[in-house]
Amino acid sequence: MKQIELNGLLWAEKNLVINDILVDEKNIVTNEKNLLIWEAAMDAPKSDGWRLPTIDEWDALSDLDSTWDFEKKGRWFGPDSELLGESKQSVFLPAEGWRDDDGNMLNNEGIDGLEGIDGLEGNYWSATKEMYNDSYAHYLYFDSGHTYVADTAYMRNGFSVRLVKDIK
Q1: CA–CA separation, 137 and 151 (whole Å)
Q2: Dist. CA 55–CA 53, nearest whole Å
Q3: Do 99 and 125 touch, CB atoms closer than 8 A?
Q4: Which domain holds residue 117?
Q5: Nearest 10 degrees: Cα torsion 59, 160, 42, 31
């Protein structure tokens, strides 16, 4: 797996992809976009020290410069993010929308069924649970103009997953 070193972590170059579609009764664990519920995201990285970033690690990444890439529909994070991938010191996170706990694909306005919802927003799970409610976890949110790291979401929603590894 290719990786990028930022903030004392190795960041996977691409989002986690699970080839199988898993269904737990009514709740979809993943779909063709690999938007995972939180539990599946936590269980997925089981080899070589890969894991979900904590909310503090997402916060540190978002404190670096970031630039929206209109062509690739996502955001570059890193000290030279304005170079849009021409450097090895930035990580690209595609904006792939999200899925609610009923399996509906949504964009940042909460409207489902729209064509071309990719590229409107990115939502990435963190390993950090919400302190007062076991059903919620923190995540990174971004769109073309904003980045937020303090939000929480229902763990049965489907979000993107980017793995990190501690540098030894």
Answers
A1: 8
A2: 7
A3: no
A4: 3-166
A5: 170
Tens of pLDDT along the chain (168 residues) come to 678 899 999 999 988 877 655 555 444 554 556 788 898 889 877 678 899 999 999 999 999 889 998 888 899 998 877 777 777 788 999 998 888 877 777 654 444 444 434 458 899 999 999 999 999 999 999 988 889 887 899 998 989 999 999 997
Tell me the torsion sign for CA atoms 93, 96, 101, 106. positive
Contacts of 101 (CB under 8 A, 6+ apart): 27, 37, 154, 156, 157
Residue count of the chain: 168
DSSP-derived 3-state class of residue 152: strand
* pLDDT at 118 (0 to 100): 47
**Both tokens assigned to 27:** 């709740």
State which amino acid sits at residue 37.
Answer: I
How many distinct structural domains can be found in the chain?
Answer: 1
Q: Is 141 helix (H, G, I), strand (E, B) or coil?
A: strand
> Could you tell me the CA-to-CA distances from 136 to 126, 128, 130 in Å, in that order?
11, 9, 5
Q: What is the DSSP string of 4-48?
A: EEETTEEEESS-----S--EETTEES--TT--B-HHHHHHS--ST
- Predicted TM-score of the model (pTM): 0.85
Residue with tokens 């004392």: 8
